Target: Lipase
Amino acid sequence: MTEPSGAHAGPRPLLSLRNINMTFGGVKALKNVSFDVLPGEVHCLAGENGSGKSTLIKIITGVYRPEPGAVIDYDGQTYAQMSPVTAQNGGIQVIWQDLALFPEMTVAENIAFQTLLGRWPRFVNYGHMREIAIRALKKLGVTLDVDLPLKDFPIAQRQIVAIARALVGEAKIVFMDEPTASLTQSETDHLLEIVRTLSTSGVAVVFVSHRLAEVLEISSRLTVLRDGALVGVYPTEGLTQSRITELMTGRTFDQHVRAKTRDANPVVLEVKNLTRPGQFEDVSFTVRKGETLGITGLLGAGRTEIALSLFGMSKPQSGEIFLDGKPVRFSSNREAIEAGVAYLSEDRLSLGLIQPQSIADNLVIASLDGIRSGGLLSDERKQRLVAQWIADLGVKIGKQTDAISTLSGGNQQRIAIAKWLATDPKLLILDAPTVGVDVGARAGIFEIVAKLAESGLAIILISDEVPEVYFNADRVLHMAGGRISGAFDPRQCTLKDIEAAVYA
Model:
């Protein structure tokens, strides 16, 4: 068993925090936390959603003021609290999980706009901005059209833009909050190489990721928070993913293959030779009642594109879709919902949920007909429906009227699932349902998925994380280049067999 490393002998920390306390509405978000980062170190900050990681980062960057008694030593200076200007000028950069980008602006403007900030107005040199953006992207080994608006790019490439923007500044320390959540394996490999390059050049990187394999691969030390308190600081050498999970949650998880035979169950969805040029081609498969069909592959393989066609968001050029044996051709997602198809988007923050609106409004927005009374929306029915699904899915909330943004990632995802379950679907499509969700919450989500399948719901589980489909699906399809390139039964193959096919 790896024990906390305690005080770190060696070079003086670039950043050192002591006695950090923070309270929100009577709830202790941080409890006497200490934290330090060495120059050029790759350090992982780990913990479940709600453990205090984001609060700690916001204190370091001056967004929040810690309670009196806090001591922040940074780059040879001591502060009772940081300010955003001090942090920015001192070379502290953050890539937030929600990216904080401007969809209507070009890629170049998103990457280089901070170079225009200052006390005095100045003329915008677009050519110089383009040069800055191209250089930053080159460091990541990526080529993008920097003149196009950001909204034209999928979420994976927007993540790359956010990373490139952080690298433009003269950073001494970079916090990366779930930077690889939406990246392909090759893009992730590129990023990890960039992190190593930054570390070699003396830039410290604090890596926040729920992908524990990356944590072990890239970082030298690990600081673990649980319920706002420091669990310990550990060298990553000798740690395992299961041990990190135990440290983060205080409990152990038994991963096992859930696959069962569903051949006797009736077919809910049948797809025959479905084609949409440039996205997917000649795709055929079935999903039976109570079955969870996993679809994996690298981003760009056509997985999400198939889901969007099944949900009526895009029309296939050819092929057939049958629901309960009857041919369907949806012209809108409204028609798909009415037919019993539900789709949980991979992009929870901008497509899955409406962040400023309440928990209750987000949950009922897809099933308003079910809460009507006399032609008007009934508050009583709404509250009853929301209470039912919150109880059924074990969602932890304050009040139904609280903004959905007040919930942790795992609880937000449960509300997003509940939103679609309230429509009483026949088929539930889960597209990357654990993006930005911590290990403990992931286990809870997959328990929900298993119960839904046992109740008879047909489920398509899409993920680029092979272990998710291997352990939680009855069958697994591998997509590559827009085609189904392989099929696997988790009971008759190993995890490495599927990973070898996906990452070949």
Remarks:
- The first strand starts at residue 15 and ends at 24.
